[in-house]
Amino acid sequence: MLQGESRSYEIQCANKDWALCSAQPTRNENGNIDAIIGVITNIQHQKSAEQEALLKLAALEKAGLAERRMYRFLEMTPCGICILKGDRQVSFATNEWFKLTGHEPCDLDQIDWNPCIVEEDREFVQSLWDKLTVELQPVHAQFRVHRPWINPDGEHCGNAWVLLNAIPELNDDGSVDQVVSAITDISHLKYAESIQRTRVEEAVESRKHMLSFIDLTSHEIRNPLGAIVHCADSASESLSDIQKSTPASTDQTLQAQEGLTRDPQKLTKAIETGLDAVETILSCAAHLKRIVDDTLTLSKLDANLLRISPSPTKSLSILSDIRKMSEVEAGRLGIHLSTIADPSLKTSGAEWTAIDPGRVMQVLINLVTNAMKFTTNPKDDGSSRDVTVRMGASIKRPLDLQVDFSIARAFQDSIYDTAEFSEHTCYLWFTVEDTGIGMNEEEKNRIFSRFAQGSVKTYSQYGGSGLGLFISRTLVELQGGEIGVASEAGKGSKFAFYIKAHKSAAPPTQNGDAISRIPSPSVHVLKPGKIPVSVLIVEGNASHDGFTLACEL
Which residues pair with 487 in a beta bridge? Predict the structure, then answer.
């Protein structure tokens, strides 16, 4: 100021108030500074307002930083956050919300979230909105959205599921200001829940089937046992009558001859009764054997212990064996049984093949037994009752057998797919046709299932456990093949199956006679220089007075 410049500055007075001081020098006629003029103004109010504005600015910056941090946190969470106004208009939504709902990213005023919800769940979601905005209650619910969900294996598992948590925010007058909501993807939990539910249902169903199977098997075993006991008593009584009619001395011979003369049909009737009883016993024993075989085979399948053991076999021996085993029963039932070898066996060079003949026969016996069982009743038109078994071979899969093959439950690894059997592979096919009662479409779709029969009346009229065709299907699939059926109610049925095989050469003959199967490696072969020894094995049986010859080596 001594140099003639004016000054303005702020000072804090002793009373802590702030003041603005302004001073300006004045000059005389000679141009020299002769006085200084100053003004002091109280600016305490302005200074307080300035400090308050600075504090507000700092608070705003801090709030903005916290908001940005919260927004980044919301973007990192696996939840979709959305804030809606009372008119359902979205005022805030995170990117995860767009992702979980399947809504295309757009401006907030263009969001329409109702189409994102599955049609069947929209009414339920509307009830949730009413609970939020009318009843003013928070909600916690699950619903589906149109976004597809794919499991970790890449499989499409339908629509995605989300978990909604929402709460209304109210104004001072109690009206809804906005609704804050969060959705979480729970599709994986729903998927696991469905698998668990399916497994529980399968376990319950399996238990029901097992209990039913136990009851059914017990019933199936009890009936033949009762028949065996009854027939054994009848045979014993008939043999006792014959024994009484058999003379033990000369006097008794004269008396027996005199008695037979008076009643010549008595002895014949007793013999016929005994033969019928023995035939029934044999039939019931065969039935019991099939039940036990099916039960054992099923247990092996469940324990994954059943194995296919191929060995060189003459293909035509399968047909001759099934004929020998079934012709007696077929004759007793009045059924004409025929076996036919297709020319393809020779043209395909499959006269000798490496197969498991025991498992193939198990399937054939089951099919032929069923065919005869369902062809026993004579037809009204007087037509013959026939069961025909055909066998052939093919280089390719024989899918032209005119049956509907059942869909394999799972692709089995066949022993014929190994390197040992990779060359000279062929397919043996079999068909079993009958002129029996036939089946409708519903019955055909059910018969290859476990513990299932064609209809409810099947068991009451024909018996059975519902396991034979299921086991046959599994055995065929284990041998690299398929099984199917073609049938029409009242016109008979045609079952067909094929298995994978390996063409092999005929084995050397033994004593000039050809053999149909190679002996098992476990059979002992006498070496030169060894002395053959015959061993007779005898087994005692408490039910007989003597002994039973078991085998001779």
Answer: 493
Q: Which whole number is the average pLDDT over 177-181?
A: 92
CATH T-level topology, domain 308-519: Heat Shock Protein 90 (3.30.565)
Minimal CA–CA distance to 113: which of 150, 84, 73, 141? 84
User: What is the distance between the alpha carbons of residues 23 and 39, in angstroms, rounded to a whole number?
Assistant: 6
Closest CA to 476 of 225, 277, 297, 228: 297
On whether the CB atoms of residues 427 and 496 are closer than 8 A, the answer is: no
pLDDT tens track for 21-30: 888 888 887 8
Q: Which residue has the higher pLDDT, 536 or 371?
A: 371
Would you identify the CATH topology of the domain 77-185?
A: Beta-Lactamase (3.30.450)
**Where would I find the H helices in 246-314?**
250-262, 264-302
Alpha-carbon span 294 to 472, nearest angstrom: 10
Q: What is the residue whose two structure tokens read 């109280």?
A: 42
- Whole-angstrom CA distances from 162 to 146, 182, 185, 527 are 11, 10, 5, 78
Distance CA 33, CA 553 (A): 152
Over residues 443-447, mean pLDDT? 84
Coil, helix or strand for 232? Answer: helix
Spatial separation of the C-alpha atoms in residues 542 and 85, rounded to whole Å: 93
Q: Nearest 5°: CA angle at 54, between 53 and 55?
A: 90
Which residue type, as a one-letter code, is found at position 501?
A
Specify whether the CB–CB gap between 386 and 338 falls below 8 A. yes
Tell me the residue ranges of DSSP E strands in 329-371. Answer: 336-341, 352-355
Statement: 7-42 belongs to CATH 2.40.128: no
**Over the stretch 485-535, which tens digit does the pLDDT of each residue have?**
999 888 889 999 999 998 888 777 655 455 555 443 333 333 344 444 444
The yes-or-no verdict on residue 364 having pLDDT over 90 is: yes
Q: Would you place residue 34 in the very low, low, confident or very high pLDDT band (cuts 50, 70, 90)? A: confident
Domain ranges of the chain: 7-42, 77-185, 194-278, 308-519
Output the CA torsion 517→520→524→528 (10° steps). Answer: 50
